[in-house]
Amino acid sequence: MTLWTSAEAAAATGGRAQRDWQATGVSIDTRTIQPGDLFVALAAARDGHDFVAQALYKGASAALVSRIPEGLTPDAPLLVVPDVLRALEDLGRAGRARTQARVIAITGSVGKTSTKDMARVALTGQGNIHAAEASYNNHWGVPLTLARMPADTDFAIIEIGMNHPGEIAPLSRMARPHVAMITTVAAAHLEAFGALGGIAHEKGAIFEGLQPVGHAIIPEDLSVTQILRDCADRAGAVVVGFGEHGMARPLRTQLTEGTLACRARITGDTVDFTLTTTGRHFAMNAVGVLAALSAAGADLPAAAAALANWQPPAGRGAVEDVAGIRLIDDAYNANPTSLAAGLETLVGLKGARYVAILGDMLELGSEEFAMHRALADDPAMARVDLVHAAGPRMKHLYDALPASRRGVWTESAADLASRVNELVAPGDVVLVKGSKSSRISMVVQALRARAAQEKG
Prior knowledge:
Elements (H helix, E strand, L loop, with lengths): L3 E2 H8 L2 E2 L4 E2 L1 E3 L9 E4 L11 H6 L4 E4 L12 E3 L3 H14 L4 E6 L4 H11 L6 E3 L9 H7 L7 E5 L8 H8 L3 E4 L7 H4 L2 H9 L10 E5 L5 H10 L3 E5 L5 E9 L2 E8 L2 E7 L4 H16 L4 H7 L11 E5 L2 E6 L5 H12 L5 E7 L8 H7 L11 E5 L3 H7 L5 E5 L2 H5 L10 E6 L7 H15 L1
Parallel strand pairs: 4-5, 5-6, 6-7, 8-10, 8-11, 9-10, 11-12, 12-13, 18-22, 19-20, 19-22, 20-21
Antiparallel strand pairs: 1-3, 2-7, 14-15, 15-16, 17-18
């Protein structure tokens, strides 16, 4: 199916098409490009113009460029624009404008991607669904997602993230959602915001892009909930709170081995759903998702039933059996709130011993050492048998634990991964978690490599 013609893309961006072409997709990466894609030559770590010839060789229908790369023939299928990123934004706006889809935007300090995926799965069977890939939630990820959206989309789920003040509002205005959901507000990126209130104001900016009489789905029971409500009120939104005391709230959660059976009240309706996870925080996110989908006009009972097919994404709490241990791979990111949720997931599984392998939590500001140390007092941490840690920040947690529960501490994740045989034993349930830049995922890779070697 044609996504963009050269004439449509030129009209959207104000660019000049060298020749006629038709694109069936949009790509920014030659490693994953598909035949028929429009290749967008963004300048990031590398200048995308250096890869235009490769993209065309791999079957790209055309390339979006700001200059004609050396070595291309005069009739090469190019769309020439003054600025590639600006043109991608224009293409995204045009993609959003031409569809009648109900759009749901999701942000939050924790759980954006898993919640977006949860919403996508819950909408199965309810028309044509379009959702952001991976964690495409930044200044290029949001317009790319919109540019990839087919005109006949029925529901779209857009993930919006931030690292610094002022990033969310422009992306929300671009997406123009009918429903905007905030998963939670937690101590993440504190270096850029200074305090939790600053993060809340930035998250609340997602409501600035809402369509008239749009819905704001906000977490109750937070110290900053009122800030979020104020942001929603200024946008003229219909506010639906989710949480223990919200209009959308869990009524019952029953934990069995590997699953959560839940009953929830969603703005007047009672529904049952099952999640293939033991993390209760996922159940609360599911309540928020159901509230958002109901507000967007989806079939609520069907969405609740479809949640049984959702699985936590790789690196974000997925549970797998690896050479005699149960591994919770939660190594994609971390802050105090998400780490506490990870620990709760850990001790919710059955095993001979609970082992936490933790890397530094980053971007927490001046109180980062105290925040690491405070995890020693987390209720779930009291049930953890052994903690291995990597990094200078996590050393503060390590030192705060009783000596009997201290495992191995190393300066880096690479050092910890090299000692993988000392870290776990058959029958263990193991959580691996830390900020992505801590590289604690190296331990996950080492555990899998050890398992493959034993199998081979």
